[in-house]
Amino acid sequence: MSGVLLIPMAVATGVVVIVVAAAVVLVVLFVTVSMRGGQRRGAKRRGETRQELADAHERGERAERDRDIAQEQTRQRIDPDR
Fold first, then answer.
1. Residue 20 burial (CB < 10 Å; 0-12/13-18/19+)?
2. Rg for the chain (alpha carbons), in Å?
3. N or C: which end of the chain has fewer CB within 10 A?
4. Could you give the CA distance from residue 77 to residue 64 in angstroms, rounded to a whole number?
5. Are 42 and 49 spatial neighbours (Cβ–Cβ below 8 Å)?
6. Confidence at residue 24, expressed as pLDDT on a 0 to 100 scale
7. pLDDT tens across 7-60, in order?
8. pTM
9. What residues have CB less than 8 Å from 76, skipping those under 6 apart?
10. CA–CA separation, 29 vs 19, rounded Å?
11. Rounded CA gap, 44 and 50, in Å?
């Protein structure tokens, strides 16, 4: 008689273990996918930041060239013998 009572209990325990294991797998999968998305967004932001930095350097170099040209033109107006 006691063997008959243990079988439903064992089945119920097995079902609970399977449900808990499935829940753990789903949580781990969700966390992994979330982390992966964060890495992609971070990589995209870093790429955009690098491009903005390169653009800023280019604008700075262009501004320096323009300034040098303007200074040279000013010198030529002040001292036409140069």
1. exposed
2. 35
3. N
4. 20
5. no
6. 97
7. 677 778 888 999 999 999 999 999 998 888 777 777 788 888 888 999 999 999
8. 0.47
9. 82
10. 15
11. 10
The tokens 């280019």 sit on which residue?
Answer: 58
The backbone torsions φ and ψ at residue 5, rounded to the nearest 5 degrees and listed phi first, read -75, -30
Asked if 44 contacts 36 with a C-beta cutoff of 8 angstroms, the reply is no
Amino acid letter for position 57: H
User: Cα separation of 60 and 7, whole Å?
Assistant: 79
75 CB contacts (<8 Å, ≥6 apart)? 82
Give the integer Cα–Cα distance in Å for 77 and 80: 6
